[in-house]
Known about the structure:
Blueprint: H1 5-8, E1 27-30, E2 39-42, H2 55-58, E3 76-79, H3 102-109, H4 116-120, H5 127-136, E4 152-154, H6 165-173, H7 199-202, E5 212-217, E6 221-226, E7 232-236, E8 253-259, E9 262-268, E10 275-276, E11 279-280, E12 286-295, E13 298-306, E14 315-322, H8 340-361, H9 371-375
Antiparallel strand pairs: 1-2, 3-5, 4-14, 5-6, 6-7, 8-9, 9-12, 10-11, 12-13, 13-14
Amino acid sequence: MLIPVKLVKKMTAGRTYRLRSLALPGLAIALGAGLTQQIVSQPVEAPVPAELTAAAHADPAWQTPRLSWGHPNLEGTFTSRDMSGIPMERPVQFGERGSLNEEEFLQRASGGPGGLAALRAGDEFEGEARLQLSALDSSEVGTRTFSYSSYIVTPVNGRVPALTAEGEQRQADFRSGQSNGPYFTTANFSYYDRCITRGISGSILPSLYGDAMRIVQSPTEVAISYEMLHDTRIIPLNGRALPDAGVTQYMGASTGHFEGDTLVVETRNLTDKLAIARYAHSLDAVLTERFTRIDPDMIDYTVTVDDPRTFQSPWTFRLTLTTQPDYQILEYSCHEGNFFVANALRAEQGYQQSVITAQARGEPIPERQTSTGGNEIYQAPSSEQAVDINAAQ
């Protein structure tokens, strides 16, 4: 493998260079442009699943750092960037294997599904998500590669349990947002579309950008602030009673306590207008989150979903949240940059006019365009496209 001379010019003698890529017999560096011509060969470091590099795994004697009052220190800014590309449900060919084998991991690390190279190229995204990636030119793709075969760890097959009859109907009726219409009322838009909330799981599961949380602790509370869409949860640790079950909230009502090194947070009083990992749930849903610091830069985060009205058994998914170089949680000015609602209504007006025109001509009713075929939901409208969405038509 030859390194281009234009890169070699920046090198100085005595430095060691390692690549986190597939193991190769050697790395040949061609020196030139004023340097002595020679060939230097050195072994290349083979990739290692990121979970195996965690301090708690590498050193059995490692201890979770603690705050002055004795609680485990979970403070910091963490993202789910390194989880991008890992599927929620485990592909059936992996069976009950929670991790990839060596060959499968090497493929992921070198650009296969779930790998950084594929993510940087946008290969992990299709349709609407790929359009959004192109529009945003997002570079938030993480710095580590994990060998997890799926987010879901329970049941052992890594799949969402079967839905109840009520759950199937709820899922069929649920509108997750950013569909192709029709758009007649605010109910046709999701809470995410309208910059209200993404819910607990939606606020941290990887999307395309802004998937971060900041954790701040006191002796009596833990506060979790999410970058997208600006929600902050205040979780009491003193066993305070939850509100009446009839009082529902977007992020629910939570109470927390520590079990050894793990923060356990139980959340009830969730609205049924949102979803957990894209699965609509009932008002009886209970989420149990567990936060365990396993490294100065890693937190293992699991969520157990218990909703007998929707799922035939509880299920759990797991993310390892990590720090990223120089990552900061910034103000999420969603309303100021939200072109989706206006563009969707503009597209709806355009479609309705095309129906009227077709009917007047005796032509077939045209099909709705998909969001990737003319809705332009992620782009600011041009001056020619801009319309007053409140004006009479």
